C-alpha cells in the first residue's frame, strides 16, 4: 500500500505556553513494498510521524493518504477499521497489557474477527516460534524481560497480517542477535510485499539490507525527502 504525507504539520498544545511544534512541512511518499528507515535525535518527531502514519493521531494540518484515501477525512469508526486491517504497529514502549499472558496479548487484535480460540492460538504460536518466544507464551507480560516484551509486541503487530508495518525503535531493547533476527523477520515480510517503516537510532537497522531508503528528521523536519 502506498502512503503519502502532504504538507503535514503537527502541534501539541498549540497556542499554550507548553505548545510544541512537533512536525512541519512533512512531504513523504512511501511506495508499496518499500522499506523506509527514519533516523533522528531524541525529540525530533519520529514517534509523532509514525503515529500519524499509523492513524493513532491526526495532523494539525496537511493530509495523510493511503492508496489515495485521505485518512483525516474518514469518520472515527472507519479509521478504527482501517487501522485494524491495514496497520501493524510496534510501539516504542511496547504497550502490552501487563496482567495478560504473552499469548493473550498476541491474540488481542484477532478478537474483533470472532475466530475460534484454537485458530487464534495456532496463528499466535507460529509467530511466537518465529520470534523465539514460544517458551514464554503462558508468562504474564509484566514478568518478561525488555527483549521478550519487544518480541511479544512484534508478534501482536503481525498477527493480523497487515500490509503496512510501522516499528518505533524496534531494536532498542534487543541484543545484536535478536536485532538481526528481528530484521530477518522484517526482510521476509518485505519479500512478501509489505510496506515497512522503521524509526531507529541503531546503525544495525539503518545499514541493514532490508532498508531501501533512510531519511533523517531534525526538529520536526525531514531532510533529503524524495
Ligand atoms: N502527547 C504529547 N504532548 C505534548 N508534547 C508531545 C507529545 N508527544 C510528543 N511531544 C513532543 O513532541 C516532540 C517530538 O516528540 P516525539 O516523541 O515524536 O520524538 P522522538 O523523535 O520519537 O523522540 P525519542 O527518540 O525520544 O523517542 C518532543 O518535543 C516531545 O516532547
Ligand atoms: Mg520516539
Topology:
Blueprint: E1 3-12, E2 20-30, E3 35-39, H1 46-53, E4 61-66, E5 69-70, H2 76-86, E6 87-90, H3 102-107, H4 117-130, H5 146-158, E7 164-168, H6 176-191, E8 195-199, H7 203-206, E9 213-218, E10 221-223
The chain binds adenosine-5'-triphosphate (ATP) and magnesium ion.
Residues 12-13, 20, 22, 40, 42-48, 92 line the site of adenosine-5'-triphosphate.
Give structural notes.
- With 226 residues, the protein is of the alpha/beta class.
- It has one domain: P-loop containing nucleotide triphosphate hydrolases (Rossmann fold).
- The chain is built from seven helices and ten strands.
- The strands form two sheets. The protein has a six-stranded mixed beta sheet. The protein has a four-stranded antiparallel beta sheet with strand order 2-1-4-5, covered by helices on one side.
- β1 and β2 form a beta hairpin.
- The protein is globular.
- The model has no long low-confidence stretch (mean pLDDT 92).
- Adenosine-5'-triphosphate binds next to β2 and α1.
Amino acid at each position: 500500500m502506498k502512503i503519502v504525507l502532504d504538507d503535514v504539520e503537527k502541534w501539541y498544545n498549540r497556542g499554550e505556553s507548553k505548545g510544541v511544534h512537533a512536525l512541519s512541512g512533512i512531504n513523504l511518499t512511501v511506495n508499496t513494498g518499500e522499506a523506509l528507515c527514519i533516523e533522528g535525535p531524541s525529540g525530533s518527531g519520529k514517534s509523532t510521524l509514525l503515529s500519524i502514519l499509523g492513524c493513532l493521531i491526526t495532523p494539525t494540518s496537511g493530509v495523510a493518504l493511503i492508496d489515495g484515501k485521505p485518512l483525516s477525512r474518514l469518520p472515527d469508526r472507519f479509521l478504527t477499521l482501517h487501522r485494524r486491517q491495514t496497520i501493524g504497529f510496534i510501539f516504542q514502549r511496547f504497550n502490552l497489557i501487563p496482567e495478560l499472558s504473552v499469548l493473550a496479548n498476541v491474540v488481542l487484535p484477532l478478537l474483533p474477527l470472532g475466530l475460534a480460540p484454537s485458530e487464534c492460538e495456532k496463528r499466535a504460536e507460529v509467530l511466537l516460534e518465529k520470534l523465539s518466544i514460544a517458551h514464554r507464551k503462558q508468562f504474564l507480560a509484566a514478568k518478561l524481560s525488555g527483549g521478550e516484551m519487544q518480541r511479544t509486541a512484534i508478534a501482536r503487530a503481525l498477527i493480523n497480517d497487515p500490509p503496512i508495518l510501522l516499528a518505533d525503535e524496534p531494536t532498542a531493547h534487543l541484543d545484536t542477535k535478536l536485532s538481526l533476527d528481528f530484521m530477518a523477520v522484517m526482510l521476509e515480510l518485505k519479500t512478501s510485499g509489505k510496506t515497512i517503516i522503521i524509526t531507529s537510532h541503531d546503525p544495525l537497522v539503518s545499514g541493514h539490507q532490508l532498508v531501501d531508503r533512510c531519511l533523517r528528521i531534525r526538529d520536526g523536519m525531514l531532510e533529503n525527502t524524495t
